[in-house]
Amino acid sequence: MPIAQDPLSVEVTLPREDVALVTVEGYLDVDTATEFQHHLANQLHHGRRHFLLDLSAVPFMDSSGMNIILRVYQEARELPGSVHIISPTPAVRRILDLTGVSITVPVSESVDEALKRVDRSQAAPAEPEA
Questions:
Q1: Nearest to 49 by CA among 23, 5, 15
Q2: pLDDT digit string (tens) for 76-104?
Q3: 78-104: buried (b, 16+ CB within 10 Å) or exposed (e) per residue?
Q4: In which element (H, E) is residue 82 found?
Q5: How far apart are the C-alpha atoms of 62 and 58, rounded to whole Å?
């Protein structure tokens, strides 16, 4: 079995109890998406509601990566929680923009900016269900 030429590195830190900062480095594609998904599922299992996905070191992402981001976005919204993409590389940003993912999932330029968005979303009154 060949070894991946560009292995994925995923580091999770907790800037707050309910916030996971997930720093991803490497290609986020069909070969590495399962590892990325495992880290996100683990954080959901441990009660994290807000996910900051630092994609500043991801030179390429295919539909597998986008699908995982959208899946965790849906799961987090039901908690209620949120997902924020931080500093995507130009190639990844282009894919997010072309597919409309950047309209659904907020994109921030820094961790601080994303944390401020989390704070604003928690301060906003919950919308009544129809």
A1: 15
A2: 999 899 999 999 999 999 999 999 999 99
A3: eeebbbbbbbbeeebbebbeeeebbee
A4: strand 82-86
A5: 11
Nearest-angstrom CA–CA distance, 85 and 106: 6
Stated pTM of the model: 0.87
Written as six digits, the tokens of 118 are 């989390």
Cα 68 to Cα 129: distance, rounded to the nearest angstrom: 26
The beta-carbon contacts of 39-44 under 8 Å, at least 24 apart in sequence, are 39/10, 39/12, 40/68, 40/72, 42/12, 43/12, 44/72, 44/75, 44/76
SS3 46: coil
Which amino acid, 36? F
Residue in this structure with the two tokens 């990325």, named with its chain if needed: 36
Taking residue 124's Cβ as centre, other Cβ atoms within 10 Å add up to 8
- Residue 61 burial (10 A CB sphere; 0-12, 13-18, 19+): buried
Per-residue pLDDT of 11-27, as tens digits, reads 999 999 999 999 999 99
The answer to whether 12 and 53 have CB atoms below 8 angstroms apart is: no
